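Deliverable D5.2: sample structural annotation.
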Amino acid sequence: MLRPLIVCLVFLAIALTMLSWTATADRHRFAEFRRTHNKNYSSDAEHQSRYEIFVNNLAVLANLTQGLSEEENIYGVTQFFDLTMEEFIQGYLIPEETLRATIQEMRRDATPYEPSPREKRDIPTCFDWRNHNPPVITPVNNQGACSSCWAFSAVEEIESMWALAGHPLTPLSVSQVVDCDTGGSDRGCSGGGPPGAYRYIQSAGGLESAAVYPYHASNGNCGKHAYQSEKSVTSCNPGFSAGSIVARFSSWSFVTSTYDENAMASFVANTGPLSVCVDALTWYYYRGGKKSYGEFRCHN
């Protein structure tokens, strides 16, 4: 009986040692995560709670990446790893009821895009507006802890269409839409939809530039709001002014409400970039790379 007991004790010691190594490694990864994403917590209790959430997310990540090569792996530790999935959904994604309302508004208020027979037939296998000269695509933005992707989607398409019409490529104000568009199902940092954004922009007469009305990742006052400048000095923006409008449009249409990929490809190839909203639930773990259609669905 002595030898089996010794063997069991050895295995137990090895198991405990491995658990200790894993816990130490997790602590190091959490410390690195905090430094990378500038995470600060208000108390030791919150620190421990966020650490436990982080460790749980590491376990999910291990399952997601199991068997994937480095080339295939698009998942990794992201800035959201100290949030529960519920917190991520509430803080960054648009509620399902808002998306349903957006589709209804789109079908009610806009004319569907109808490609010509030639446009339907002559769709290239590869097309990228980022390669256009002169440029018609502005840089990627970070919406922060604000469910404003709907406003970015609408505004950035207008930026491209404005440039394609022969005007200088100008970053336009997303916060103007977030702060001032309060009609229909649009609720600022609580979500909204591109159709409502287009209606608001038309009624306002257009958009100001992002330089005049910068993005602040929060619900602001359309008349006046404070924002943090690059020099970390709190400045005061006078808010929306019709006299400062730099881009406008006269009409808009929807490409498809039934996830028609051929219609979307035809529009992109023949007209310009288009505004889409996607189900970004799996982007909680997304670090970069190409995602296939099966990994997310469009709410166009």
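Annotation notes: Residues 2-88 form a domain with the Helix Hairpins fold (CATH 1.10.287.2250). The longest strand covers residues 225-228.
The annotation will be released with the project's public dataset once the embargo ends.
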